[in-house]
């Protein structure tokens, strides 16, 4: 009797537990059904300010200032035409693209062998060097703005594309080295050793075997060099006057000079978002890795 | 990975070293040079010792900018980290929603920083901005141009808009690395949603969360362009953070001595933080 009583009690407890579990599962299912709303609302809020900028870029100035409307009543591309026909505007884009591409090529080229050295060898002072690189990535551009101006004046490089490209190496080379090192450490060392046994010289092995293996890493590093050079304004503005003036600086100047040309400002802003938006699809799975310096 | 000891690897590092040293060491030496000298113009300098450093360290202006910056970094971390975790937990794990979420969420990260400033400058304006107009229409007395509190709210909301996605993406990367078996085991044990989060998801996100917190702290600590475009450091000095104050001193007033001393103090703080970051990274890498 006692035994069966215990058994009944045990069964009852189990039943109760199962019921509780089922309830919990049902409730969590109900929550899970609506969990898609969180990213949807978040993305909606993210897009709202960008939409507002696009909305403004298709309006005339009188419409922007005159009537408050959620979409352009009378869409116009006049603002974009101003940018595409005025050299002061479109040269800004060309200048930005020139120094950004230069910077990207320089940064990735010097970072490749360095990252290989860090990922494969131990050498005198390697850890200190790796740490020193990080401090440059973390250095505030404001600290460097004035000394940069004087350094590049001394070399007669003010207002040239190469000056900005080299100055941006300050934070982009460390970034590229850290990202590439992260990718290279994922390639087993046995591959190197096998290649050497097969009679490959180091340069041949590096170009023919190793670079294709980390192609995605190189793409990600190049993308982030492009991006961080593209979004930086303080140093680029300090080092340029007119000839190499980046679009970001053109935006600040023209607005204050010509009063409040909101429409053109908005159109210029929209055009600076496009390069990022175009390539984002290709790097979507690596964005976290890139921003975390290759450490995720 | 076990690495071989080979000092010839220095030759592979050398080009990179020279390039970065040119952009990093020479300017830093200039800064050091200025920080210990004074001038009456005409390029004549004389030794000033540590005067500038004691000046800067005891100036209320520097303290205020530092305090504002620390407050700003603290607030955005308190908002962005929990919000980022919450959104990452609710993101889809498979299907078409994944690339959709990744692409749209990353978009603010790739916008030039001054354009981020411009977007919010416009968005918050009470006459032509959706946010400012709506808030005022709803009866809030919001005007970021002359109200310090509203300016702060605008700058913080802007940073949350700009950078929360970074926390989301990092946490998401940590979450997808959890094997399904963990969740199945939790289900069999009848674990609640909270204990799944507390004992499975949070420990697995530890590494990426540390990286996210450190990156966000350092980047917010040197923020310049976005608040400068939106508020210009104002109204008054309400949103003058360290970088803005430094540029005002160095380029606006051309007080190179105090600016250089301030740069070095600023840089030392960053150096200390970088060291923390580096130690965390190395420990993480060692754990695999």
From TrEMBL, chain A:
Native species: Hoeflea marina
Protein name: Carbohydrate ABC transporter membrane protein 2 (CUT1 family)
UniProt keywords, alphabetically: Cell membrane, Membrane, Transmembrane, Transmembrane helix, Transport
Transmembrane segments: 31-52, 97-118, 130-149, 161-184, 205-231, 262-283
Membrane topology: Multi-pass membrane protein
Family designation: Belongs to the binding-protein-dependent transport system permease family.
Gene Ontology CC, one term: plasma membrane
Gene3D superfamilies tied to this protein: MetI-like
Superkingdom: Bacteria
GO biological process: transmembrane transport
Keyword Transport listed: yes
From TrEMBL, chain B:
Subcellular location per the Swiss-Prot or TrEMBL entry: Cell membrane
Record-level GO BP terms: transmembrane transport
UniProt KW Transport keyword: yes
Domain of life, source organism: Bacteria
Keywords: Membrane, Transmembrane, Transmembrane helix, Transport
Transmembrane segments: 12-36, 70-89, 96-115, 160-183, 208-225, 264-283
Keyword flag Nucleotide-binding: no
Pfam assignment, any one: BPD_transp_1
Gene Ontology cellular-component terms listed: plasma membrane
Main location, first listed in the record: membrane
Domain ABC transmembrane type-1: 66-277
Membrane topology designation: Multi-pass membrane protein
CDD domains named among the record's database cross-references: TM_PBP2
PROSITE patterns: ABC_TM1 (PS50928)
Family: Belongs to the binding-protein-dependent transport system permease family.
Record-linked PANTHER family: GLUCOSE IMPORT SYSTEM PERMEASE PROTEIN GLCT, TREHALOSE TRANSPORT SYSTEM PERMEASE PROTEIN SUGA
Name assigned to this protein: Carbohydrate ABC transporter membrane protein 1 (CUT1 family)
Species name: Hoeflea marina
Lineage per the UniProt record: Bacteria, Pseudomonadati, Pseudomonadota, Alphaproteobacteria, Hyphomicrobiales
């Amino acid at each position: 009797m006692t035994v069966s009583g215990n058994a009944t009690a045990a069964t009852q407890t189990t039943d109760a537990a199962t019921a509780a579990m089922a309830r919990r599962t049902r409730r969590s299912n109900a929550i899970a059904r609506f969990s898609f709303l969180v990213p949807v609302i978040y993305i909606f809020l993210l897009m709202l300010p960008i939409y507002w900028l696009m909305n403004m870029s298709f309006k005339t100035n009188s419409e922007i200032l005159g009537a408050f409307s959620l979409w352009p009543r009378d869409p116009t591309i006049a603002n974009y035409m101003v940018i595409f026909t005025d050299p002061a505007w479109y040269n800004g884009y060309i200048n930005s693209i020139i120094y950004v591409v230069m910077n990207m090529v320089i940064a990735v080229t010097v970072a490749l062998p360095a990252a290989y050295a860090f990922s494969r060898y131990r050498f005198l002072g390697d850890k200190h060097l790796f740490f020193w690189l990080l401090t440059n990535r973390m250095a505030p551009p404001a600290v460097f703005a004035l000394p940069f101006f004087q350094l590049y004046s001394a070399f007669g490089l003010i207002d040239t594309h190469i000056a900005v490209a080299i100055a941006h190496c300050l934070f982009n080379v460390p970034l590229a080295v850290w990202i590439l090192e992260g990718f290279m450490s994922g390639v087993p060392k046995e591959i190197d050793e096998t290649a050497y046994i097969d009679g490959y010289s180091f340069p041949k092995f590096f170009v023919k075997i190793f670079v294709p293996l980390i192609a995605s890493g190189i793409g990600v590093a190049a993308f982030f060099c492009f991006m961080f050079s593209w979004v930086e304004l303080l140093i680029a503005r300090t080092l340029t006057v007119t000839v190499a003036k980046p679009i970001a600086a053109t935006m600040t100047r023209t607005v204050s000079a010509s009063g409040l040309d909101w429409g053109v400002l908005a159109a210029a802003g929209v055009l600076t978002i496009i390069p990022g938006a175009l390539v984002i699809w290709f790097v979507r799975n690596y964005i976290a890795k890139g921003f975390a310096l290759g450490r995720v | 990975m076990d690495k071989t000891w080979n000092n010839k690897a220095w030759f592979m590092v050398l080009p990179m070293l020279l390039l970065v040293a040119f952009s990093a060491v020479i300017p830093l030496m200039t800064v050091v040079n200025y920080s210990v000298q004074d001038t009456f113009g005409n390029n004549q300098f004389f030794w000033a010792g540590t005067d500038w450093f004691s000046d800067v360290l005891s100036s209320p202006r520097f303290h205020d900018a530092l305090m504002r910056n620390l407050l700003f970094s603290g607030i955005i971390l308190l908002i962005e980290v929990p919000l980022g975790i919450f959104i990452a937990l609710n993101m889809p794990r498979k299907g078409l929603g994944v690339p959709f979420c990744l692409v749209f969420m990353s978009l603010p990260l790739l916008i030039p920083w001054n354009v981020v400033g411009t977007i919010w400058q416009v968005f918050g304006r009470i006459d032509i901005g959706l946010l400012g107009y709506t808030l005022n229409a709803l009866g809030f007395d919001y005007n970021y141009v002359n109200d310090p509190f509203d300016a702060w709210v605008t700058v913080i909301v802007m940073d949350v808009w700009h950078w929360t996605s970074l926390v989301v993406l990092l946490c998401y990367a940590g979450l997808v690395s959890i094997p399904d078996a963990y969740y199945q085991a939790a289900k069999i044990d009848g674990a609640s949603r909270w204990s799944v989060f507390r004992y499975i998801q949070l420990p697995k996100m530890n590494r990426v969360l540390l990286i996210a917190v450190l990156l966000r702290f350092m980047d917010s600590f040197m923020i310049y362009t976005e608040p400068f475009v939106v508020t210009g450091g104002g109204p008054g000095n309400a949103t003058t953070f360290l970088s803005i104050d430094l540029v005002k001193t160095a380029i606006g007033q051309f007080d190179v001595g105090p600016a250089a001393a301030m740069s070095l103090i600023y840089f030392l703080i960053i150096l200390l933080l970088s060291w923390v970051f580096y130690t965390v990274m190395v420990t993480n890498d060692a754990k695999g």
